[in-house]
Amino acid sequence: MRQGFLLWLLCIALFASCKKDDAVVQPINISDSSNHANATQTLSLKISHKCGNNPLSLNTTYADTTGRIFSFSDFRYYISNIVLIKNDGSELPLTGKILLADVQQSDYTLGQIPIGQYQGFRFMIGIDSSMNHSDPALYPSSSPLSYQNPPMHWGWNVGYIFMRAEGSVDTSLVPSGNLNGVLSYHLGTDELARVIDFPQHSFNVTESAAATIQLQFDFLKMLSNVDLQSENITHSLPRTGLEGKLADNWLSSFTVQ
């Protein structure tokens, strides 16, 4: 009987030991995606502005493909509706992220992005109709949609100026090499918004370091089939055809580096 009692105690001890081990030894799968489900990293956009083979900057003289010279005193434009395309084809819209790109600035923060592989992205030059006709007074001064100087807004009924290029140009019938005319492109209205799509330009967002998308904008490509002698001014309304030509040229003006 004593032997039976001791055997019973031994069984209880072994059972308790097994339960304790079960509670402690739980395998952790470090490859389990749930461990990184909320991990993010900073994604930035870097834009280099060019005029052909030269960096684009203010108060510098450039020449188009015909040799007609021009220069800028202001060059800014809106980027909105940024969408990242994941490797599985699903989309990640960066809701509410609007940039006012400036030739004098190259780096822009897009925010915290889920880590992972992305196969492409797209964005809009301009602002979609739902926001285009809003009042700049509704936004804090830090917002790109607030009042700007020089202005980037015509009034709620027309909306924002999607791209503003101001400067001087040689408008002589035969190029004289003198900046004797005005260069003034104010491109806007809902119809001129254009989506720039890079569906096959992959990038990786990791936990270890911030990621950057590098874009290049070439103003000479925007001037493709544009005669600066006579097509040096458009404020989008009334329609002349120049505004649509310039907006269409945005599609080839951007490249990924």
Termini Cα gap = 85 Å
Mean pLDDT: 89
User: Which spans have pLDDT < 50 for at least 5 consecutive residues?
Assistant: 1-35
Shape: globular
Discrete helix count: 4
Class from secondary-structure proportions:
alpha+beta
Helical content class? 10-25%
Listing every helix as H and every strand as E from the N terminus to the C terminus, the arrangement reads HEEEEEEEEHEEEEEEHEHE
| Main beta sheet | 11 strands, mixed
- How many domains? The number is 1
- Taking all Cα atoms into account, the compactness measure Rg is 29 Å
User: What kind of oligomer do you see?
Assistant: single chain
How much of the residues is beta strand, in percent? Answer: 35-45%
Number of strands: 16
Topology:
Layout: H1 2-24, E1 40-51, E2 54-55, E3 62-63, E4 69-86, E5 91-93, E6 99-102, E7 107-114, E8 116-125, H2 129-132, E9 153-155, E10 159-169, E11 181-188, E12 194-198, E13 203-205, E14 211-218, H3 219-222, E15 233-234, H4 242-253, E16 254-256
Parallel strand pairs: 1-14, 11-15
Antiparallel strand pairs: 1-2, 1-7, 3-4, 4-5, 4-6, 4-8, 4-10, 8-12, 8-13, 9-10, 10-11, 14-16
Describe the structure.
This protein is of the alpha+beta class and 257 residues long. The chain has one domain (39-256). It is built from 4 helices and 16 strands. The model is unreliable at 1-35 (pLDDT under 50).
